[in-house]
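Following up on my earlier thread - several people asked me to post the actual chain instead of describing it. Fair enough. Here it is, all 496 residues.
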Amino acid sequence: MKRILIAILAIEALCVNILQAQQITLSLDSCRTLAIANNKELLIGNENIKAAHYQHKAAITNYLPKISLMAGYMRNQRQVQLLSDESKGKLEQFGALATSTMGQLTTQAQAIAQQMPQLAPLIQSLSTSIAPLGSAISGLGPGIIDAFSSDTRNMFAGALTLIQPIFMGGKIAAYDKITRYAEQLAESQQATGMEDVILSVDQAYWQVISLVHKQKLAQSYLELLEKLDGDVNKMIENGFATRADGLSIAVKKNEAEMTLTKVEDGLSLAKMLLCQICGIDLTSDLVLADEEEGSLDVMPQEAFFDMQSAYDNRSELKSLTLANKIYKEKINVARAEMLPQISFIGSYLMTNPNVYNGFQNKFKGSWHLGVMLSVPVWNWGESLYKVKQAKAEAAMQQYRYDEAREKIELQVNQSAFKVNEAIKHYNMAVKNMDKAEENLRMANLGFREGMMPASTTLEAHTAWLQAESEKIDAEIDVKLTETYLQKALGKLNMNY
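Reply from S.P.:
Thanks for posting it. Predicted structure:
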């Protein structure tokens, strides 16, 4: 959040400068802040961190029960019949057969009553009771047929299901850890990307500063040659110098003009590159804070470092460590396929037609609770091969970590060596510059007194130009090697 706020303030300040003046003055820190705020890869990295965060959130939900609702409708061509056509025919004739049978029983009872008059009252009473039964039995068959009939051509169903994982072989916990490590890995990769952006800003920034100072140097050299050219022309007029001396100085002056043109063109391109890295308009009139300095503020110091601190700070090693953890958890995911899985299941199922009270064309349902156990028995060693594959991938990742650790140790030592070497070159360049300035002073003095030829003076000018150029390169080299060492030690983006 602090970084975002700094970037917003820097962009707002830049917009104010653009509105108030055509010229934009930026320091190294301002360039870094603008580049971090506008770099597309870093913006993509921020979105990647968000995606990894939400993926971790999604993985945590696997611990919780899942509830789903399903509903469906089906139109069937034919309805379900529980009774065959033959059974229906028999049930339809059941009433007529029962009535005929009861009529025969009544006739036989009347014949018995004629033969045995003493049973006539009893038989008459039974006949009176049986008469309504016959009419009731006559409608029994169609009623049974109707009771077994249901319109199943239009079927509706709905289910509310709850599934709570109880034990999934450790897969859920492994996914939780993998996504948490993936979120941290995205942040670590973002830190690596930020270091790369800062390094590219520093390189472009100091390249501009180098060309600015070389432009000033080329202008100074051209002015010296123009002054020398004027002096030589006067000496030629008075006979104290030859025409060849004048031509040699003219050639050097033309070379100086061409050099100045090349430096100016290179400076324009370097500023455009810096503008592109910072995310501002390429045509902006960019002025850097260190341009106004007569010489760079260089305070060379011997390189000292703690290798363990470098291991702890390097974002690349942090990323590889997290990758190691992810691959180890993938072993647990693969192993989970070999273990039993237990889940609790609860559901409410509702259908129309329903069978809970005969066949009814109404919505009715019931609750169902249970536990589901899934045990892998035999898959021809597929799960075992997957575990071995995951272990091999984890071993490869560990080798990558070990290799990166060795390369980082080499990089830190090389960077420290380059810092010390740059300091030596800088000290030598300063001494050479002092000698070149004294030599130029003596040459100019001797030339004015007529005691030194123009060729010797030109050599002194060339030596001074070379010494000054080497001094500028040495100053820039000290700045950049310090930056490279900070990156090797993992300290480049600690303030961002």
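Residues 86-151 form one domain. That should answer part of your original question.
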